[in-house]
Amino acid sequence: NAGVMQNPRHLVRRRGQEARLRCSPMKGHSHVYWYRQLPEEGLKFMVYLQKENIIDESGMPKERFSAEFPKEGPSILRIQQVVRGDSAAYFCASSPGTVNYGYTFGSGTRLTVV
Amino acid sequence: EDQVTQSPEALRLQEGESSSLNCSYTVSGLRGLFWYRQDPGKGPEFLFTLYSAGEEKEKERLKATLTKKESFLHITAPKPEDSATYLCAVQARRGGATNKLIFGTGTLLAVQP
Fold it and tell me: B8: pLDDT confidence band, cut at 50, 70 and 90?
């Protein structure tokens, strides 16, 4: 019974390149959330998705960032034209419905922009 | 604005020395308060959800309590393996379907043998 799977674990990109982060939710979970954790800062909400729908993207920068959760396959967080300030740990979480049970988080993708 | 403040930022304890971590929150109607544990290089691990003032939950050496303004995570007779960052988060009760959580910056706990 695998948990939330994120890949890659570590990603290095040069400034101006694209970063694609993938997240496979736990089996039976249809809700996916992306959070960003900067050094010395707390986890910041970015986006909440259900299959084929973005429910809340209020925490996601309007430019360069996009997210999807297709009918088939993992959820993807895409960052275009990365800058040094995008360097952070990106965590994906999933839940079966409401979060009363608490999210289940993946181990994160650590993005470094050089 | 919904906000979560955790204190202290860091706490060093001797093995067996009980203590408490604090989470103060301001939110426009609390739907739930969550405690997570995060080990270095890993994702947060869910510990507890509390819903209403006066509620308490326990798990091994940990006990979480909730009032209308804050939550405490009590650690009784801690062991070195309890060393981690403990995160508090709230979910606001408001219109819309969002399930987002607002996190504090955490308390880094170090338990020395």
Answer: very high
